[in-house]
Amino acid sequence: MDIELLRTFLEVKNTRHFGKAAENLYLTQAAVSARVKQLENIIGAQLFTRFRNNLQLTVTGERLVNHAETILISWERAKQDVSLKKKQQQVIAIGGTSGLWDLVLQDTLHAMHTKYPELAVRAESHGSDTLIRHLMERTLDLALVYEPSKITDLSSVEISTSELILVCTTQIDNPEEAMAKNYVSIDWGLNFHMSYAQLFPDAALPVLHTTLSRIALDFILKFGGSAYLPYRLVEPYMDTELFQVTNAPVISRKIYACFHKDNLKYKEIESILALIQSLEVSVEDIPEEIKI
Predict the structure, then answer these.
(1) Cα torsion at 187, 120, 130, 43 (round to 10°)?
(2) Can you name the CATH fold of 81-159+255-279?
(3) Does residue 164 sit in helix, strand or coil?
(4) Percentage of the chain with pLDDT > 70?
(5) How big is the CA angle at 54 (ends 53 and 60), to the nearest 5 degrees?
(6) Contact between residue 66 and residue 93 where contact means Cβ atoms under 8 Å apart
(7) For a surface tag, which of 23, 31, 190, 220 has the fewest beta carbons within 10 Å of its beta carbon?
(8) Which helix (H) or strand (E) covers residue 166, if one does?
(9) What is the pLDDT of residues 165-211, one digit of tens each?
(10) What pLDDT, on the 0 to 100 scale, is given for residue 84?
(11) What are the domain boundaries of the chain?
């Protein structure tokens, strides 16, 4: 089967529009329609249906999505594997949530390239559920997440702890007062949100919710406000543009590395984990006076 049929199917699924999918794929709309029709003939069922001018996946289409994504990822990895340069010996696929790329993985990626130039790297950002699914499908070698996996086929190793502090663009001691205007909520995982809900049951609704800590930082620096952010990220702005809310508790977040127990690249994974821990890129070196 032509791999481009699946690529076209996923693009239509993402855009919910044949015309927009055609623009993104640099094809005519007729070509996109023909590819979807060809795929439907192969599958033997309709993949999309129109409901009040809104393109929706059928039940068959919904079932195909994960398989199509896995096939495309496997194909890209296969192409990368067979096209390795002479000096490169292995391809490692690493994934993490968007927040963990900011916090840990970006620096790790740079260090990996310096220390292990023979490794070719595939870097991905997904939600935790997708990362775990890709580990099980063997399209991902290593994933960094906030919650350890409970799947018996996967190993979860705690690699570091990130300390999150409440910062505000004005000097305020009271956390409820700091969060009353322009509080930005960041997805630091389920445990963080449970702790936050217990600590601040009457907190005002956030003005913005994001998965990226840098988006939150840029927003409050521009418009004023507050957010729970890692000390390492806000250190350059402390006591000038940002101030710690002194009566707000520091909330710790554990970070876990997950990988399949039967992964044949265990030695490479072990080396990467050792590198992350040696860099201590996510362990906040917080001054004692900050640790309230």
Answers:
(1) 150
(2) D-Maltodextrin-Binding Protein; domain 2 (3.40.190)
(3) strand
(4) 90
(5) 125
(6) no
(7) 190
(8) strand 154-168
(9) 999 999 999 999 999 989 999 988 778 888 898 999 888 889 999 98
(10) 54
(11) 3-65, 81-159+255-279, 161-253
